[in-house]
Design a protein that fits this description.
With 167 residues, this protein is of the alpha/beta class. It folds into 2 domains: 69 residues, no CATH class; 64 residues, no CATH class. Helices cover 29% and strands 22% of the residues. The chain contains 5 helices and 7 strands, in the order αββαβαβαβαββ. Strands 1-5-6-7 form a 4-stranded mixed sheet. Strand 2, helix 2 and strand 3 form a beta-alpha-beta unit. Helix 4 runs parallel beside helix 5. The longest helix has 14 residues.
Length: 167
C-alpha cells in the first residue's frame, strides 16, 4: 500500500489569515453633539465646562474616535481641546467615525507585518473564516507583500486563486 503524501504541507505555501490582524483593543466613540447646546450649537464657556466635568477615565487604554453626529458647525479648536483631554488616558485619539478608526487600526496592524520574512515565498491569503474581511484589508496585505513574495494567492492552500507571480 502506498503512503499518502500531503502535497499541501510539502508545497512550502505560507498561509496568512487576515483575522489575525483585527484590532483587539476596544474602540470608544466620543460624539461632540452631547456637549453642544441643543446638540447643535457650541457655546464656548458651556462646552469647556462640560469637558471639565466629563469622566475621561472611561477612555483609559482605549482607541477613541471623535466625531459629531449632527450637522453642527464645530470649530477646529474644539477637536484640539477634546484631544488634549483624551491624549493622556487614551491609547490613541482619532477624528472620524468608529468604522474609520477600525480601518486605520486594521491597516496599521497589517503594515506591522515584516514583509521581508516572506522574501521569495509562496503566500496564500486565507479567503474564508469566522469574520468578514473588508476589501481594504486584502489591498493592504497585497501592497505589503508584493515587493517580496515569489507568488501571492487567495483562498486555501488546497484551492487557491493565483493573484501574482514574480517573473
Amino acid at each position: 500500500m502506498e503512503a499518502l503524501i500531503n502535497k499541501v504541507a510539502e508545497s512550502g505555501i505560507i498561509t496568512i489569515n487576515l483575522e489575525d490582524f483585527f484590532p483587539n483593543e476596544p474602540i470608544c466613540l466620543f460624539d461632540i453633539k452631547d456637549f453642544l447646546f441643543m446638540e447643535m450649537l457650541l457655546k464656548e464657556k458651556d462646552f469647556r465646562a462640560s469637558l471639565e466635568n466629563h469622566d475621561w477615565e472611561q477612555y483609559r487604554h482605549k482607541h477613541v474616535a471623535i466625531f459629531c453626529s449632527t450637522d453642527a458647525i464645530v470649530p477646529m479648536w474644539a477637536y484640539m481641546l477634546i484631544a488634549t483631554r483624551l491624549s493622556p488616558v487614551a491609547k490613541s485619539v482619532y477624528e472620524g467615525s468608529g468604522e474609520e478608526l477600525f480601518k486605520k487600526l486594521f491597516i496599521e496592524n497589517i503594515s506591522s507585518l515584516k514583509a521581508d520574512e516572506f522574501k521569495d515565498k509562496r503566500v496564500v491569503i486565507k479567503g474564508c473564516g469566522e469574520k468578514e474581511i473588508p476589501a481594504y484589508a486584502y489591498t493592504a496585505i497585497s501592497n505589503q507583500l508584493l515587493p517580496m513574495v515569489k507568488s501571492l494567492m487567495y483562498g486555501e492552500p488546497c484551492s487557491t486563486v493565483p493573484v501574482f507571480k514574480k517573473k
